[in-house]
Amino acid sequence: MYYSTNSPGQDVSLAFAVVKGLAADNGLFMPRRLPRLPQEFFSRLPRLSLAQIGFEVSKALFEGEIPEPELEALVEDALDFDTPLVPLDDDRHVLELWHGPTLAFKDVGARFMARLLAYFNRGQQRVVRILVATSGDTGSAVASGFLKVPGIEVVLLYPKGGVSKIQEAQLTTMGHNIEALEVEGVFDDCQRLVKQAFLDPELNRALFLTSANSINIARLIPQSFYYFRALAQLPDSARPTVVSVPSGNFGNLTGGLIAQRMGLPIGRFIVATNANKVVPEYLETGVYQARPTLPTLSNAMDVGDPSNFARLLDLFGGKVEAMRAQLSGHWSTDEQTRRRMKEIHQRYGYVIDPHGAVAYDGLAEGLRPGERGILLGTAHPAKFKDAVDQTLGLELPLPERLAHSMALPKVATPLSKDFADFRAYLMRKA
Ligand SMILES: *Cc1c(COP(=O)(O)O)cnc(C)c1O
User: Fold this and answer.
1) Which of 277, 352, 355 is the pocket-test mutation for ligand 1 (most atoms within 8 Å of CB)?
2) Which residue's CA is minimally distant from atom 15 of ligand 1?
3) Residues with beta carbon inside 6 Å of ligand 1?
4) What class, spelled out in words, does domain 81-102+220-396 have in CATH?
5) What b/e string do you get for 179-188 counting C-beta neighbours within 10 Å, with b at 16 or more?
6) Is 64 helix (H, G, I), strand (E, B) or coil?
C-alpha cells in the first residue's frame, strides 16, 4: 500500500501510484511500510547480483501485488548490468552507477519504471504514450528505458540546437517505439507543450498520455537496490560506512534512506550539492528556502526547489533535528569541483565526472576518523566530455555505445513551438 505525502491517511495500490505518477493532491507517493529485511538476506547479500537484490527488496516492498515469477523476470530484464564498487584507497570507494545503456545512473530508475508500467498496462488495448521534454540527459535515459517495451510509445521533445551532438545522437537514433521531435524553440517551450498536452481534455480522451518524470515511485524504489549492492562489495569491517550522494532532486538520496530503513547498515549520508544548496542550507538553518536555479559545471544537479524534498520531510516526520542525525550537508563551488577532479586523477589515476567530484569533495571534507566512505558516481565521465577534457587536459575516448549512436542516421520530426502543431501531431495517432 502507498500513500501521498499530502494525505498520509489514505492508501492506494502500487499500480495506481505508478500509473498516476503524481497524486491528485500534488503529493508524492511513498510506501506505507519499509519492512526490515531478515538477517538471512544480509548473510546472502555478498553473493547476490544487482538484479537478485532488486528482486528481494521489491518483493518485500510490493507485498504480493506482482506475482513473484513475473517480478523476478521484470527485475532481471531491467537490471542486466552491475554497479561495481571501485576502491580509491582504504577509506574511499566509488560506486559506479553508470554501466547501463545510456551511461547514466538514471538508467536504473527508467528501466525499472518502464517495465513496471508495461506490467500494469498488460491486457489493455490502449497504447500508453509517454511525453518527455528534455534538455539532454534525462530524455535519453527515459527513452532508452522504454525502448521496445510493449504497449508503450515515447514522444521526446528537444530544443533544436539546444542539446549537445552526443545527446542529439542518443535522442534521435533509437527508433522502434521512440519518436523524437525537434522543436523550433528552447527547453521551456518543449516543457510548455508537454504540460499543455496533459491539460487538453479532448487529447486525453483520444490518447492515454502520461509522463515518466523523476517523482514517480517506480523510478525511486530501484534506486535503493544499488546501496545494498555497494555494501555487499565492501570488505568486512566494524567501521561505520558513510555514503556521499551528489544530489539535485534528491531521488538518489531518498533511495538510500529507504535501503537504510530496510536494515542496511549505513552510518550516515553526506548530502553533496553544487551551488544549488537549498538542502544543505536547510540542514544548517532549519529553514527551507527554494531559490532560482544557478547554472554550474555539474549541471544535472542544478535544481533550486528539489522535488523529493517532500519525501525527505516525510521520512523524518518533518523534524530537522532527526534529519541532522542522519544527513550531513555539504556543497562545492565549480572551482572546488575542478580541483577535486584533478586531485582524483593525479592521486588515484581515476577519471571522474563533475557530479562524482562533488560527492568526493563532500567525503574528503566530511569523513570523520574511524569512518569509511562510498561516493556515488552518477555518470560516465565521457557524458561530460567537454568539462572533463578541459579540466584534466586530456582527450577522453568516446565509449563504444556513444560512438555507435553517433554513427547512426538521425531521425527527428521538425515541429514549431505552437501548441496547435503539437496537438495535431498527437491527434493523428488517435
Ligand atoms: C540526475 C542526476 C543527479 C542528481 O540525482 P537526484 O536523484 O536528482 O538527486 C546527479 N548526477 C547526475 C549525473 C544526474 O544525471
Assistant:
1) 355
2) 300
3) 104, 106, 137, 246-252, 300-301, 355, 378-379
4) alpha beta
5) bbbbbebebe
6) coil
Query: What are the CA-CA distances from residue 297 to residues 202, 338, 383, 410, 411 (Å)?
Result: 42, 9, 13, 28, 30
Give me the half-sphere count of Cα atoms (radius 13 Å) on the Cβ side of residue 150. Answer: 8
Q: How far is the CA of 38 from the centre of ligand 1 (A)?
A: 31
Q: Which atom of ligand 1 is nearest to the CA of 248?
A: 9
Look at residue 410 in the predicted model and tell me its pLDDT. Answer: 94
In the prediction, which pLDDT does 134 show? 87
Whole-number Å distance between alpha carbons of 378 and 298: 11
Q: Which of 184, 210, 181 is nearest to 197 (CA)?
A: 210
Mean pLDDT, the chain, integer: 94
Per-residue confidence (pLDDT) for residue 188, from 0 to 100? 83
Nearest CA residue ID for atom 2, ligand 1: 300
Residues lower than pLDDT 70 in the chain = none
In the reported structure, the alpha carbon of residue 248 is separated from the centroid of ligand 1 by a whole-number distance in angstroms of 6
The whole-number pLDDT of residue 8 equals 86
Burial of 317 (0-12, 13-18, 19+ CB in 10 A): exposed
Q: Which residue, 178, 258, 194, is CA-closest to 226?
A: 258
Distance 78 CA to ligand 1 centre (A): 19
- Nearest-atom number in ligand 1 for the CA of 353 is 13
Residue 394 C-alpha to ligand 1 middle, in angstroms? 25
Distance CA 154, CA 131 (A): 6
Distances (CA, A) of 423 to 16, 156, 332, 344, 392: 27, 14, 43, 49, 46
Q: Give whole-number Cα distances, 211 to 112, 182, 290, in Å.
A: 15, 18, 24
Place of cell 522535488: 307
CA atoms within a 13 Å half-sphere pointing along the CA-CB vector of 200: 20
Show me where the domains of the chain are located. Answer: 81-102+220-396
Q: What is the pLDDT of residues 306-361, one digit of tens each?
A: 989 999 999 999 999 999 999 999 999 999 999 999 999 999 999 999 999 999 99
